[in-house]
Amino acid sequence: MTDSAELLQPYLQRRSFVELGARQRAKALLDPGTYRELLDPFQRVMSPWLSRQGVVPQADDGVVIAKGSIGGLPVVIAAIEGAFQGGSLGEVGGAKMAGALELAADDNRNGIPTRAVLLLETGGVRLQEANLGLAAIADIHAAIVDLRQYQPVIGVVAGSVGCFGGMSIAAGLCSYLLVTQEARLGLNGPQVIEQEAGLEEYDSRDRPFIWSLTGGEQRFASGLVDRYVADDVAQIQQQVSELLQQGLPAQQRSRQADLFLQRLARLDAGPQIEAATVRDLYQGERS
Amino acid sequence: MSSYSLRGLHWFNALSAGAKPVEGLPASLKVADGVLGSQPARFIAVVADPDNRFVRARNGEVGLLEGWGLAKAVDEVIAADRDKPHKRALIAIVDVPSQAYGRREEALGIHQALAGAADSYARARLAGHAVIGLLVGKAMSGAFLAHGYQANRLIALRDPGVMVHAMGKASAARVTLRSVEELETLAASVPPMAYDIDSYASLGLLWETLSVEQIEQPTAADLTRVTECLSLAIEDVAAKGRDLSSRLGATHRAASSQVRQLLRAQW
Amino acid sequence: METLSFEFPAGQPPRGRTLVGCVGSGDLEVLIEPGQAGKLTITVQTSVNGSEQRWEHLFRRMFEGQTPPAMDIDIHDFGATPGVVRLRLEQGFEEIGHD
Q: Is the model's pLDDT at A1 over the cut of 70?
């Protein structure tokens, strides 16, 4: 092989994770031959609420639940399909994710060390199912905290939808978060912030601005996520596997209220915020 | 010039009369340790702070300080009662119009602050504290997920101003390219989309819905009624356990149970 | 939104089943399962009203004069163009081992 071919090899072999759908992402992360889907689309467990509103449902309601192993460790993966209704969660998809987490926690109480990996490509609650979506997300939060008594819960936000709404809170409850450059992680969608707070506050069409505050790179530099990975299946798989091997983190990010309150107390909240200010305030050394 | 609700504050003051205020928390949180009937309880409300350092969180919204502050207020209880046989109840008085919307909030990770609150409330429940959510006003989306939705039992007062939803009417109408009237018509035939508390109750998520004489400022009779209901809720939790399974079972939520059954069967 | 049904004569059922696509804007998901020998049945749930003729046309061009496998095809369509529909169907047929 020539020198330039050797240099190009890793790039040629890179496989985009972002371009994969939810099912393919789940398959790609699980050890070969271990993928087994529950409530697969052929079972047609679908939304009871969409057809009556003239919205075409998806056979898996936009959430894929698959059991298998990663690096030999038993896991259940819940993967949200961002292409279906913006990855928004309805009753059935939400119940799939919550139920899978609940069963994983039960497993641990029965001596089976099942971990969970959540692939979060979602705008939050599906408005066509509003309160049932919201309730399901509360169930998901409860189940993450329950499972986290025993095993780490890994969240992956890859893009292009990102992770917003009530599911960004779920991300914040995870033991570890992994993001790509394409990813965004934030509570409110840019359009809603612009509507509520005005264009000056938040320009929803200014993509570089949005990524500068809520994009994967910024979140990593601010210590709000744990790993920042290239958009490459093999690398993401490896990082997820490593995090699973690490077990529960020494510090759970969502249990650091005192630290965050101290940091916020140091901040002059008068001037409008800058990305660099956040990095300095939260990380200092990692900026 | 925005107006804000005072219901949460009034109900907090009434329920926690004589209780000891808890110091060291943001001014937008009202927290006090007292009793409910004969049960020790910590009362927690999020209220408007017109002087909030974060300008987008001055009307009772749950923002950065509120999220982390709730986490701290609940963590203190978990720690203090860790070795006690009897765990204090947590009464979340819910009157929250929304999460805070702003550049500072997003940049500083409001999603993480709200996760802090949800985490603490969930862990309190798992540690054996009865967490009761009392809905006296709005209980909207991220704000409710952070303050109230991890409760063992949810009790709502019956009133048009008591509302649970994922998005305010005006925003939801805009986002779905409808008029508010069209949205309301649609919601009338799709119970999970409706804004009124009786439709919400039909989803099976509430333990009880109570009518009161004076929603803004409780009468003595209102206070007795609600206190009794809260006490019964605490007893019910003691009898039945620490998870959220009591929210399952309504006809409108049948699919949620079916999915869980199928997952278990295929696990 | 409307639900449409179509039927064509067919041969033997395929051995496998498959799902291709996703109900994204301009896309569709196609579930293909073995059906009753001799019959190819297609159900289409589509966001586009008044499109029956176009679906009929497309399926006729694909299946008339052929002996396709006896499949039950379930389509959830969110406004895909005929080109995308055809692509997904062909992806599906390839997956179950028939052209």
A: no
